[in-house]
Batch of 4 targets.
Target 1
Amino acid sequence: MTTYLAQKNFYNDGHGWSNLLSPYLNQSEDIKNHVQTVMKVYLIENYSLLDDKTRQEIIKLCELTERNYDTDQDKTIFKKRVVKENYLNYDTFNHVDKNSRNQYFKLRYKFHDYIQVENSHTSIPVTDLNEVASMSYLDDDFIYLNSLCLLLEDAEPKTKEIKLLLAKIHSDKYRHDVEVLSDYLNFLEGKRNFVIASADIISLSWVSEDTKEKIISQMKTFKTKKIVPQQNQKRNTNRIQGKKQVEKQSRKISKMIFSIILVAVALIFIFMNLFDGMNVEETPEINQNIIYRKDERKTREDINYSLFSYLFSTNDKLDDSVFISNDALKKLDALKNEYADILDYSEEYPSPKPMGSQYLSDENQLEVYVSFDLLEDFYLKITVNQKNEIVDVTKVEADSINFQHIGPFDATQYFFEDISEDYHDLSLYYESLSQLYETYMTDSLYSDLEDMTEDELDYLDSFSYSLPLVIKPETIETPSFVIANENGEILFIEFNEENKINHLYSDYFGNIPDNYLESLETKSPLGFIKNPWHYVIGYKNN
């Protein structure tokens, strides 16, 4: 047991602890007492290196309580640190360099203590901040804590550095806090239109009341001094930023004028119809395209409908237009025979509409999970290879799949369809984007795209004609896509847990992380298929 503890290779492994300690705890009373003594000291000294679940398992296993501790100090540590939940996720152990693991988790817990524990009188010395800055890897919890420490430990916070840290946080649990803190940093930079109130700071979810009070105090000091950081003054004189500011203001004015015109056209249209004694049932034509595109994201799946006509009818022959392998056809026929009574829609349900979510597999095959508006509890998984051939058709249970409203392939498809549709006119693109983005991209990405120039939009559109490859970079929970344009340039598309596009990495959209580039090394050279977003799945002539 002592040898095992000396190896310090024991985080997040409750099962391993049980295997280690149980043989001793089941022996004589003296040996059991010895194990309890060793472990109660171990927990006091190493509570910051264990996650909540593991600590609780050790406590239960060794039958430890506050009464096992002699001094008041140890009792306090046990009650406030060993037993109490700290909300940190320690599943990142293997990503941390083994030579710095102890220090990593101890500093991580120290930052947690300072930011998230009430009545904490500790502070973070500059040496600790510098040490964390030099670490090659930080998990989301640590990045969040580090950002707050940097914000509070500097009289004039390095806002740009903190913003870069916040942009690296992917966990949805921090989404609200990141938005509030981003606005606060813009306020500290002296940017206009960023008014922050105490209520905004109070709404932060993952900080203690003490930390909120410190931020509010900092905010009031800033308001009193009316400090405008030097870096912001320089930014305001930068010609490129000035151009973006003018463009953004121009877009706002254009949108306002465009909206006034829309209202005027709508009123004239209504008036003319009323004058003619007609009921107005249609939306002005200028918005029809956006409304259609918004609705189609929820209602249709572009699969060769002949596949379903065959499955949901008594037809004994599959249409020649369906591009399907022999193995997949056999599975389709078996499914048709097995559910013949259920799937006879010839009279009652003439046209079931397929709705689904599209994903790319590790083999870069398209996997489409499909449901139908007129058939409950019936779900199909359709797999398509890179030649657009259906290679598998399988019935799946709803509870056995991650059946979501939109998949990462859907998000990418809609994203590039919108760009291809309107990229030639920046104002039209922004008009469309403002009404459609919520389905397939995060708010933070939308904010980034709001500042794009014509050149940046043309560059982004150059990727809309290539087929994506799926990659799985280390430390990233959700798969990402990589797309190349005809010039050999690469764009990485990162998704959040809801399969919304969360970040773009390329020359224009931030440096490409090393783990993204490394994950691409195992992939075959990228191929190009013109208009991949306009393909009908499983259609032979596409």
Target 2
Amino acid sequence: MIHFFKKPVSHLALPEKFTYPFHYTPHPLCVLAAEEVKEYIASRKEWQEELASGKMFGVLIVQTDNGITNNEENQIAYLAAFSGNLAGKNLHPYFVPPVYDLLQPEGFFKIEEEQISAINIRIRELENSSSYLNSKEKWKIETEQAKAVLNQAKAELKMAKEAREIRRQSSPEFSEEEQASLIRESQYQKAEYKRLEKEWKKRLEELETEVRHFDIEIERLKTERKERSAALQRKLFEQFRMLNAQGEVKDLYTIFEQTVQKVPPAGAGECALPKLLQYAYLHQLKPLAMAEFWWGDSPKNEIRHHGYYYPSCKGKCEPILQHMLQGLEVDENPLLNPVHEEEELEIVFEDEWLLVVNKPAGMLSVPGKAEDRDSVYHRLKKKYPEATGPMIVHRLDMATSGLLLVAKTKEVHRDLQAQFANRSIKKRYVAVLDGIVLSERTGSTGRIELPLCLNPLDRPRQMVSREHGKEAITEYQIISESERITSKSENTFNESNRIDELERSINESRKYTRIIFYPLTGRTHQLRVHAAHPEGLGCPILGDELYGKKADRLYLHAEYIEFRHPIYGDILCIQKEADFHKKYD
């Protein structure tokens, strides 16, 4: 399970702290390890068809201070893992084993799973049986028939009543005998209707009883399935006893008790990094650094690119890793470090009612949950203490730079937000895509309509969902395509980001697309997803570490905004060129 590097690595400095798994640049050792793992994966031809649909793999750099070798060079090694299972199995010689092998044939999971599968089969048999379907259809038909017959009978009763009333009014000197005859006629007709209604009710009850006999059994089986599934899930997650660097053990149910969802999501504990850390702790290996990469095609809804590195998922892994990383010295979340603390916020336009600022990349628009974090809102609230209302009219992603509209009064804020709501405000973004957009597929202009929603298991990522997503529309215009040969001094993946010579050589010759986006809606990460998704441009924005590859920044800039002044009624057009506009001409 432990792999020693094929090439010398003694010239590479070891990481000072363990990787922060939710926001990182792969350490050079991780890049080397990942390349070796990729070679191995490519050599396994029998897996290629399955892997073409996509799978996440991970590497963990470890120090083997346990007597495995006396060779100082070989004290640094790596472990490899895959998420979920591979080729129908959890156990493969090259990769670390799962924390718990739920696929073992004699294990309780497989046995109980077979029982639940048998219940599923019985439910499907009942739901699709000819007796059940015929009974339901007959009940439906005769219910409609009863309704029609009884409605007709009611109509005839009403007509007979109206006829008797006409006879009474036309013959005011009715005898008592004639009056009694009309009453008997009315009573008889009502009694006949009651008899008819009773007959149909009895008939429908008999048919409903036949249907209910099946429904009750189906519902009983579904209840049993639900109870057995919940019990199995709980028992299963109790087998996932996760270690940390301090030797403490917690099962998944205990770990997730403190979260909002309370119960572990399906697949928790089966991702690559928890497997890697568990194996390292069990075998007294010291974890030094990690990286996870995607192999194969992108999933239908999420965005993954072959060979790209990705952070660990939040929904499944964050609570687990918060426990498993205890006892390790871990890098700080770089997003928490204020990068513009000493810089003045550039104001592009201002009057007594509103202003437009040029938000730098890496600064929040609003503080979010961490109220003390540097943000445009904090800066302006301090600068304009007399301002009323929320001030920030719309938002830009933290990684996006550009024009941000700010109101000094709540009335102006309300007016500007209404302009956003009715889509009368026009915005233009400029971006650099990490690759070439195929002209035969997209042309120089186009329109992307992919509905978006939050990925609940991997915040803050967004996903394409035609079932749950909100409308998201982007128009675009390709400006230019170019191939740029980077030098060491210009390379966006520089030494400060800890990418070594191997990774640099991979990125030496890269192709780029300069593009303009016109968003017609304002969904979270809309431009980033529409650029990166296979059904969009299939080409992520340069520096988009959520949906593409990390660089020195996200190359997305809000360069133009046009709106009606809430007080004067004039149309204002504000523009601010991106600081990277000449870099990729």
Target 3
Amino acid sequence: MMEIENKTVHTPREKGKKISTQPAGRRLIKKKTLGWEGICRTAADTVKPWAGRFLLFPALILYLELVLHFYMGMEMRYAPVYFAFSLAAGCLFSALILVLPPRAGDVTIRVAAGLVTWLYGVELVAKSILQTYYPLSILGTASGNRLTDYADVIAEQMAVMVPVLVLLLLPFVLLLIFFGRIIGDLHPNRRLAGLALAAAAAFHLLGVGIVHLPWQGDLTPGALYQMDSAIDDQVEQLGLWTMLRLDVQHMIIPPKSNLSNDFSAIEGLGSSDDGGGTGGADSAGSTAPAEPEEPAEEEPVVDTSPNVMDVDLAALAESTSSDSVAWLANYFNSVAPTNKNEYTGMFEGYNVIQVVMEGFSGYAIDPELTPTLYKLAHEGFVFNNYYTALHFTSTSNGECQTLLGLYPKNGSPITMKRTGELGTNVYFSLAQQLGRLGYQVYGYHNNQNMYGRYASHTNLGYTWKQYVPGRNDDPDTLTCEENSSGTDRLWPQRDKYMVEMSVDNYINSDAPFHVYYLTVSGHTRYGWNRVANQYKDLVSELPYSETTQAYVAAAAIEVDRALEYLIQRLDEAGKLENTLIIATGDHIPYSDVDVIEELAGKEFGTSEALSAINESSIDFDVYKNTLIMWSASMEEPVEVDKVCCQVDILPTVSNLLGLEYDSRMLAGSDILSDSEGLVVFSSRCWKTDRGFYNRFTQTFTPAEDVAMTAEEQAQYVDAMKQLVGYKLDSTAHIVENDFYDIVFGEAG
């Protein structure tokens, strides 16, 4: 057809045909809408300008999750779960940016993509350095901790992680370079935003459906989706993004408690009459006297009554309106108490000095290099199967176990910090028990106010003194060494200096005293710092790497010299014979497990698993440590083979001091009693005197001298798993409901 002078002339082929008067473009669209193929092409032409905005965030979050999971060596069988939740989160982002005007959309896309990428990078670095992911609810704690002290550690770890960090950054860098090509049309498209919102809902529902499939294992995606703890497992099974989302959700709406009220399986479990008792220290064999040939003099009768208090827990459960308080009362009422024994009251009225040593491992003790530690570890109570299992938030979790006799919550809020925030009645803390008896009670830490320690430790009952910048002359603070300008303290502080500056506060007291020291010289990073340099000549010939040499110097020799000085001053004051010294590590040097391997002369697993404390792939003996309970008044050592850990320290010391306490209400138990020993690891694997349970393989390996039928083994494992769950989960209920105050408030 040709147009000449506004007249239409038909060519021979066009004669007899109906001619459309619509524009060519509209005729094309009409033809394309004919048939399914045409509809699909039209949809593609419509979506194409906005495809980048629609697909960017679903692809980005899914990519970051995959990099994280592959790098950390996580199980891939849970991929369908975090695939669905990642796509749901990404589509939600897409719905937001698809309704924004061009300029706002441009900025939002770049900033949001950068923040999401940064978040994954930060969490990965945190896990690699601190052995835990950080939920958003504890970022305030992280920022409050003096991270500049560890800047070199962070920089060193990031240098090692350059390849994976580059992988994480790659999509964001490509986005910035090819922004226009990737994003396309930036004009609002509300219809497509609605489609993205519908997709987000669909993927979320799909994820929830997958979560509730009949997964196998002790901790399943369905269980984790309802929890505000077990963060590592949440990241592995649900994805990092979902863990963070659930954390925010639970800050607003706390998760419902799904704890069982059937305690029949655990009644009597671990007591001496259920076959699990070890007979306390005497059963270890090394110090038990041989059977006399002639009748010996009649020995005094030993009180073996249970260590319980006059508390009607059943009545409390009936009278309370709180489900959590009722559950705790019923749970404690079903727990088998530990019994008094020949060591009850052995150190009654003694002064008590307790030391928690930063990053300490008993593998570093040496008779020549650390003679004081060696003496205390071998001439008092000798615990051959003692573990410092790593739980959430490193040092703070070690203190929680040691000072409260409870396992810390494996998630937010941080247990020790929370007790200070709430002013929780920690009735059984040694500071409160001894304070009620008229003891002078002091606590010292040669570092700043990390993990809200000033509030929590004052609440424990201590007159608490720690370093405060610029306040070295303040009597309410701990005097520490400062740099020449006097504006900041030197790092790390020397533990011996802390003892020197504090000992005169209590050493000449007419009243008995209880003192708690939290050291810092053994803090990572291990190298030739101002503490380690003092002893470089002593360790330079050791057959170890320089890192291990420096570790021995800072984490072992320095604290050894601090204890040596302390014992000297106690002796000079005539109070050594009447003082009980307790010392243990807060945790192993988890960022440098190769240091422990050098000292122990054995491997504990792959380097990747150890750097992340992936308990599915490690030898749990990496947590084996030394617990010191020593007094100069002891005539001979007492060896104990029972399995034990940090939560057992408080009840054991309470019994040794002859204090009135209720053994049912603590997660730990008196090591010297005839009850069964137990260590619970953060992964919910556990070890008792009867064997080891691996949660990852769901297998139980009996101890060498234990014979159990398959049926007995199955019943025992089921009951122990229930008890372990109760021990781990009860802490948050105790703290949040101020349970001890409900029971003992008037008495306290």
Target 4
Amino acid sequence: MDALPQPRLSRRDLLRGIAIASGVIAVPGLLAACSTDEKSGSGVTVTQSDGPIDLLTVALPASISTLDVSKSAGIANLTVALLVQEALVTVAADGTLAPGLAESWTRPDATTYVYKIRPDVRFSDGTLLTVDDVIASIEQHSVKGSTSAFAYAYTNVVSVTQTGDRELTITLSAPDSLFSWALSPGTLQVTSRAFLEQNAGSIGTPATKILGTGPYAIAEFVPDSHVTLQRNDGWWSEAPKAAQVRIEFVSDETTRLIAMRQNSFDLATSVPFDQLEQWSGLEGVDVQTASDNSVVALAFNTAKAPWNDKHVRAAVAHSIDRAAIVKSVLRTHGEVAATLPTRQQWGGVLDPGAVDELYQRIPQFDFDLDAAGNELAQSSVPNGFSDTVTYPNSGPQIGKALLSLAENVKKIGITLEVEEVSLEQWIADLGKHEAGISLGWYFATTGDPAEYTQQLLNADNAGVNGTNIADYRNDAVTDLLRRERLETDPAARGQLLSEALVLAAADVPYQPLWWGEGATAFGPVVGTSTYSPYFYIGPWATQVFARA
């Protein structure tokens, strides 16, 4: 019986995690047992204390209306839920899979996964975690007809059975190259069977909340306002420093800056890069930035006129100045995206040299208004047309990029209205596939290049509620991706993914814009020494300490 392979990333810098908001902390009575002194990227010396944190308050730049991520899988929802609920495996700072609720796991063959559950783990209500609870948590996504936001990750599951006192065995209908990641926090949050059955239809609401085995439990939830969490003193791992966490939903970037200046918050995530100097200039504030393995891309609805015309898609792709946006809007805290997967996601599949070679082969639609005009002239709408594109209020930098695009396409005869909407509305609208042009903003929850490639290009994921928001259907691309899912050899997987990306790019279903970075501001009384691209894919508040 072989140990389950641990996908590994080769990374330039492990600096930061997913772009989400975090919080504030009011810390009376800190103990001054100093342990380490570190110089942050913003020049602030951070000295760790072993003292407690009474209250950690966090400013999240987006609001949520449900705690149940199976209903709304936005990054803001995950930021809250992953303090409460855990997965079988977790994602380490270097992008590898690491033990979670499962202390070990094996793969006896290409379609069988066996997990050994930790002993004596309890939910925050005091009940013991059982294998049956894990089975119930998986089955809410894997049962036929599931409407869960994570159902796509479990389509190959044939059975989930208990095969020992603490042993769980999952059998697939066919090999699935990404399935080992399905049991990680991005697509699994374990709760109890009794809780699921007793609260069906009301989970995630202020009255019912959510239940998990994690370091915190929900004390109060006011949709679109705030959520308060209480430390779970029965958590199986090392207790977090913060006794309470209060996450407030503050979408206005200027309001968050003023609040941090007034010490109203100790931690704020998604610091806008055009305000980075102001945030970094706040006394005692440590602003940490890092790649967040995100990709921002225009998505063209290939099933809807006039976007079903490749010339229209190419015209708009040529009309956005990606390099200028990275420089002026992101202040170089990002990189022009050559394709969908980031360079850092290929570890264990392609070496860096092969990645560079691949990205040179992928067709690019660089900024060129003359080329844009020529493409439109060859299209079904040579005189232009009008449409609307939306972006989430948690991404002001995206709004600025889209406004720049709108100005450029106006020069070739296209009128593009840009509208800001709430994060949850934006996510819901993406699932409908009704818009002609959409904005995709994705954060990797795995260290594998197939995550973005399969979700966005495989025709099996097209259609309403599918992750393929361009409704892109290319038989040759889909054949390559179906073969990739069945493949277990890393080199063969890399070749199949490469061919699919090159072939799809020529059809322009998406125009990748940039691979992002995120910035989190830690106020004068808190800090962390473990900031990485996966910082928020797990119980992130346990990694926040009090400063001496």
